[in-house]
Design goal:
- The complex is a heterodimer of chains A (305) and B (237).
- With 305 residues, chain A is α/β, with parallel strands linked by helices.
- Chain A has two domains: 2-219, Rossmann fold (3-Layer(aba) Sandwich), CATH 3.40.50.300; 228-287, Alpha-Beta Plaits (2-Layer Sandwich), CATH 3.30.70.
- Chain A is 35% helix and 30% strand.
- The relative contact order of chain A is 0.15.
- Helices cover 73% and strands 0% of the residues of chain B.
- Classes of the chains: A alpha/beta (305), B mainly alpha (237).
- At the A-B interface, strand 5 and helix 3 of A face helix 1 and helix 4 of B.
């Protein structure tokens, strides 16, 4: 893939935390943390709940100050940051009211901002709800607005706390594409994740956080062509679904809301796709995937040890 | 920053958190003017104290109306904690100005006074209301949940301070010896401002403006100290 080479073409540092410790009362949440975020790179933070990932993101965002150690922006000018918190408050606004206000607060040009917001709302399938009050939204819908407020304005650094939380399969795919595009354009991304899908396809570095420290740093491993491909498709009926699930090369078949998720061996993908279409089904998405959750399990296992 | 102030005001009004303090403040004014005629400056002195109490309450509900996540997003969007705090403070001037306009105009429009209001009195009363309102707001800055997470304790302490500010003169005169009477100047200067507005007919004009100026300086000092101690705080979590 060309994504890695694109990120390698940027080499400027954006933010650096050095020997940073963060304590809340007697509780030490981060200890001697040092991390430099470079332009165009994507860093995945993994680790168990309470390991310090969210605190590290807030530290990078400048929302929390280190109890000791330093946080420094390295470009001389103010770094524009997009931040997606883990929970988004159900505000008494419509997405359009809220997002245009965000654009205005960020100082974006009104016309350009409206164009970008329309595009993001369409991509995340939220156009139908753009004028509905957000206090009536589901968790997934709120998360989409959360992501849009973070991404809009093309920030230099994007900090994401559990970005896939609550998203449907299609939105997860769309988000992945948007993040990859932003990364290629030079945006640095630091994300706390539990799903390996994002790590395997976007991350350049994976940091395992344990007890407030970086316990391990590994380069991300991308799936090879020999691995499984993930196909999301809608089937016309259960008979077709059963037939395709039993087809050669289909390693797994899981119904997901109105669609179903197939894991297909790479050599069989064309045949399986043709069969779905010939049977009257439709393809939602096709993505390379390969036992990713197993790898995530392994990483978290090592975090526990 | 002004865009964020606008958003914060919209967010506050949509959550209807302003209703109780505004209703009680207006109720107090309507009770005061339940009969007529009324003396001009005496009435304005009393309503300026109502505004002090009302704006402290309004400011507290305003400062606490958003969730920690909302605060985090605002700080990121506006670019720094300093800008966020200034946006909040700018937004808080709006209810003070609106209430001042209501308190100034209602008795004139409803013919509640015993005589026409002179232009000089109008300026004095407007200054008094604005400064009293801003002083109440400035006190609340220190009792918001970002500084005092225990809401009950914060509200109680603010209430005690508000009462002590209004009764500072009598409290100090009754409890402290002559040598310590200067202590009344440590309290937020509500009682001296109320005194000069009540006695504006007898007091020289420069003395009235001097006391109001002291109230303004006290308010600005509170705002400055608040900025210095808050600009380095973490966003709420």
């Amino acid at each position: 893939m060309s994504l890695t080479s694109a990120s390698e073409s940027f080499s400027d540092g954006l933010v650096e935390v050095r020997n940073a410790c963060k304590s809340y009362g007697r509780r030490k949440v981060l200890q001697e943390m040092s991390l430099k975020v470079m332009q165009g790179e994507c860093i995945a933070l993994i680790g168990r709940n309470g390991s310090g990932k969210s605190t590290l993101l807030r530290l990078l965002a400048g929302l929390a100050r280190p109890t000791s150690g330093t946080r420094k922006e390295m470009q001389g000018r103010k770094l524009s940051i997009g931040y997606v918190p883990e929970r988004f408050p159900p505000l008494p606004f419509t997405p359009w009211e809220f997002l245009t206000s965000v654009a205005s607060v960020r100082g974006m040009d009104k016309h350009a901002a409206e164009e970008e917001l329309n595009d993001l709302l369409r991509k995340l399938d939220m156009e139908h709800a753009m004028h509905v009050k957000m206090n009536q939204f589901s968790k997934g819908m709120l998360q989409k607005i959360n992501l849009i407020q973070g991404i809009c304005g093309k920030p230099g650094m994007l900090l994401l706390d559990e970005p896939l939380s609550g998203l449907d399969v299609k939105a997860q795919e769309e988000l992945l594409h948007m993040l990859l595009a932003r990364k290629q354009a030079g945006t640095a991304i630091v994300m706390s994740v539990h799903e390996s899908k994002l790590i395997d396809r976007a991350a350049d570095r994976v940091l395992l956080i344990r007890d407030g420290r970086i316990a391990e740093e590994t380069p991300a491993v991308r799936p090879t062509s020999q691995e499984l491909t993930r196909v999301v498709a809608r089937m016309p009926d259960s008979g077709t679904l059963a037939r395709i699930a039993a087809h050669g090369g289909v390693a797994d078949c899981t119904p997901v809301s109105e669609a179903c998720l197939l894991e297909v061996e790479s050599g069989w993908v064309d045949q399986v796709l043709r069969l779905i279409l010939d049977s009257g089904g439709s393809i939602v998405s096709v993505t390379p995937a390969a036992g990713m959750d197993d790898r995530m399990e392994e990483r978290l296992e090592s975090a526990a040890n | 920053m002004l865009a964020l102030s606008r958003f914060l005001l919209k967010s506050y009004t949509r959550k209807h958190a302003y209703f109780a303090p505004l209703a009680v403040t207006l109720l107090a004014m309507f009770l005061l003017y339940s009969y007529k005629p009324n003396p001009v400056m005496d009435s304005y002195a009393v309503t300026s104290v109502f505004l002090f109490v009302g704006s402290a309450w309004i400011a507290l509900t305003f400062l606490n109306h958003g969730s920690p996540q909302q605060e985090q997003l605002h700080i990121i969007h506006v670019g720094s904690m300093k800008r966020y705090l200034l946006s909040q403070m700018a937004a808080l001037l709006v209810p003070v100005a609106l209430c001042t306009a209501i308190f100034m105009l209602y008795p004139i429009v409803a013919h509640m006074f015993d005589r026409p209001v002179r232009i000089g009195e109008l300026f004095l009363a407007a200054g008094g209301h604005l400064i009293m309102g801003m002083l109440g707001t400035a006190l609340s800055l220190y009792f918001q949940s970002a500084r005092m997470p225990n809401g009950t304790r914060a509200t109680s302490m603010l209430l005690i301070l508000v009462i002590a500010s209004i009764g500072a003169k009598s409290i100090v005169a009754g409890l402290f010896p002559e040598q310590l009477q200067w202590l009344r100047w440590i309290f937020p200067p509500v009682s001296p401002m109320m005194d000069v507005l009540l006695n504006s007919g007898e007091e020289p004009l420069h003395k009235i403006w001097l006391i109001l100026g002291y109230g303004l300086a006290y308010t600005l000092f509170l705002g400055l100290i608040y900025m210095l101690v808050s600009v380095r705080r973490d966003a709420r979590t």
